[in-house]
# Entry
Amino acid sequence: MADDRLRGNLEMLILATLSRGSAHGYALAEALRAASGGEFDVPEGSLYPALHRLERSGAVASEWVHDGRRRRIYAITTAGAAQLSRETGAWRRFADGVASTLAAPQIRPSAQGV
Amino acid sequence: MTDAIDRYVAQLADRLGAGQDAWRLLAETDGHLRDAQAALQVQGKEPEEAAELAVRRFGDPAVVAKARSPRRRAAGLFSGAWLVVSLGLVVIGLSGLVSWALEAIFGPAFLAGDINGVTYTSARCADFLGFFPQAGSCAAAAAMHHSDEIVSERIMAGILGLLLLLVWLLVRWIRGAVPIAREDRRMLLVASAVAFLGVGLVGFGWGALSILLDVTRGLAVAGVGVRLSDGAIALAAGVVALILLARFAHRGVAVTAAGS
# Structure
């Protein structure tokens, strides 16, 4: 269930993680797992197609670095930060709506009945 | 940022049919798995166990490949289907050439003569004889007319197939190869093998049975060339598709065995 919800919001979570600093794919997967307290256990391989989509859309930029092993480092761009801001706002409104609905009082039966 | 080596490897991956960006995904996957393995070894896992756990966490290759780009996969499937349709039309064109050869060797009646007992109205006979006044009889003129249609229509289909194939090659040359997902390649090969072998067996079987029945009843063999020509060519194409499918399946097994 958590995995299904995660897939729909994976790009937003990647951008949120990258907004805290550049990272290569493995570090990003570790950061996502740690930040969610282990709740998000999406297949790590799914991150790369999502990162490549974000790069094609201009939300992230990347370059190869060599630190003993060749790694592709990803960083959020200005456009990506704007996208993150929009998606975070939309998510918060959605989450508030869900929370309000779950906390709504019991429906009183009408006088005529149903 | 890419350098000359990155561009070269991308081009090579493209030539190998993997697509220009596949090499990058593979390079990142390898790096990721090695990092994960090293981290798990630090936690006390044996190298082999750490590698297996890292791979498990990374996810099923089919899921990763599918997540890469559904639109790209659809483009790959479209490209593959275009190729199959083009080759199918070329195969029809080849059956037109075989029909033409059968007509030249055995005559129009063998290729497309009407089965015994078929007659035409005098108006229709006049039409046929108008097209082929040298035929001498309504039945011969009808056979020549049918043969002419069969050969010309099949060769036109073949030319259309060649044009579609040319467009496919041109797009591939300009925009690079669009990789076709493994499941889609298997599906296209199975569909091609089933379609060609089905048409081939029905066509060839029908033609052979017609000859047998005509000969045993002492009748002139007529109208079987059309079935034999499409049957023979479709059977040949089906066998080629079957061989490609077997090679594809064998390669999959070999890769799995090498990976295990």
In short: Chain B touches chain A at residues 1, 6, 21, 24-25, 27-29, 31-32, 34-36, 39, 57-61, 63-64, 67-69 (CB under 8 Å). The two ends of chain B are 35 Å apart (CA to CA).
